[in-house]
Amino acid sequence: MAAHAQFDGVYHGLDQVGGRLRLTEGGLGFKPQAGDSNGSGSTFTLESDRMDSFGWLKVGRGYQLRINTRNHNKRRETFDGFHRDDFDRLSGAISEYYSKRLEQIEVSVRGWNWGKAEVEDTEVKFLVRDKLAFELPLEQIANTNIAGKTEVSMEFITGEQQQPQTNTGTSTNGAVKPKKQRGDQLVEMRLWVPGNVQRSDDEEEEAGSDAEEQETAASAFHEAIKAKADIGQAAGDGIILFKEVLVLTPRGRYDLDMYSGFLRLRGKTYDYKVLYSSITRLFLLPKPDDIHVQFVVGLDPPIRQGQTRYPYLVLQFVRDEELDAELNLDEETIQTKYDGKLKKRYEDPTFRIVSSLFRVFSNQKLIAPGTDSFEGTNSSNCLKCNVKAVDGLLYPLDRQMIWVSKQPIHVRYDDIHQVIFSRVGSGGAVSTSKTFDLKVTPKSGNQIIFAAVSREEHDALSKHFTNRKVRVKNEMSDVVAIDDVLSDDDEEMEDDEDDSRRRRASKNSKSFAGDDDAMDEDEESEEDQDFEAESSDGGSPSEGSSSDGEGAESGSDDMADGPPKKKKKN
């Protein structure tokens, strides 16, 4: 028996640097090529007792040796770059050193998108005519849901979630983080799984009356993934469970199940897995009704629901609701792992228990309005406003402001270029407006407009920003000055009109006084003519034959229509 078997020009995993692979009875070792300029390769060893099974398949870089491991930090180690002729020598070495068989794996190259999906211990395999098309590691599945009755969606852990040390939540003091070159990554996949589960006769007898409602294949596939992946209660012992928590974003009632490294939101339709390392901010914000408290959790990367991203979780609790809860932790774990920051038993309001656990598990500060924070006219720490057509509550805090709605908006004061107080409308509409707009211009990005803010909040809000060294521009004072000028002009115009009316009245009175004699002569001549006509018509048969009622009515009409006649002058 040879002491070792050696293969050159082999690549470990996704390394771009080739090297030398050596197999011995005690294990294997890989060493990158010496003198490589990239320096991206590293020496690797694996003990023989951690090798579980071996596979051989065709890949992009020749042929691949796949080693499934046990009691190892990775479920699988791969080595690419083998040639077809290396199979016999490699198979003999594995059989000789490790008493294992090198299994050949056939890969489907038909390109079909239909086949059979199987859930195994560590992966989901998609087979086309019993040949492997692709496989998905279960440890990379962050969430799974049933979209409809026959469609199963799988969401995968992103690069930031795989490396939680990149998200420590520490402040950068406004410094711009360098951009990282990242390639494309699979974040979601959906499989159409039609039909129902075929049960055996024994299973149908055990099901009894429930046999009428057959389980769909999609539901069975979904449950199999939850059971095998790092999803659900099987993933570890839960620390505490909160039932039917009201979540405003994404809206619904969810069971909040908290574990040591992550939490799960379980709803009737959707489940979400949130790593504590992805939590960046925590806000505890009282609502102005003095009944509810909102707990806002910032996430990076955000959770997903199809194409919709949720960078914030918004939970709502009743302020006076208390809970008697006990953690599934022993005192030693509380003291050693959590530095005594947790209690074994809680008898407090629910929102305080939840916020305390989030703060300890995520190692993030809990931000809440302080004693010197913004206080509005109704003694609340927030004000109502709109962003576009969506209502929400704006909380101006000590170092930042957050607008809470379906999609919260968070802005730090040191990221703001200036805030502008602006009023809507023109002319009389401005002077009678009861609201104003708060325009926030960040140092980078688009302007945010918080509309329909009550006019009574202006002074307190302006003072708050000024005390925080935020640049404030007030366009309302300019508009008020314009209104004052316009009102002065209106008053002057009214005075001019009054003077002109008085002048016209005095001129008219003088002209009326000079024309009195002529008007009297005209009136007297007209009255003389009328009198003569009346006296000549006095015996008219047509007028004299009319009835008294008609005569009285016509007389009244004449008095109502015509002016009173003057007496004839002698």
From TrEMBL:
Query: What keywords are assigned to this protein?
Result: Chromosome, DNA damage, DNA repair, DNA replication, Nucleus, Transcription, Transcription regulation
Q: Which domain of life is it from?
A: Eukaryota
Localization, per the record, is:
Nucleus; Chromosome
- A single GO CC term, please? FACT complex
Compositional bias, Polar residues, is annotated for: 159-174
Give the CDD domains listed for this entry.
Answer: PH1_SSRP1-like, PH2_SSRP1-like
Known function: Component of the FACT complex, a general chromatin factor that acts to reorganize nucleosomes. The FACT complex is involved in multiple processes that require DNA as a template such as mRNA elongation, DNA replication and DNA repair. During transcription elongation the FACT complex acts as a histone chaperone that both destabilizes and restores nucleosomal structure.
The name under which this protein is listed is: FACT complex subunit POB3
Q: Which organism is it from?
A: Meira miltonrushii
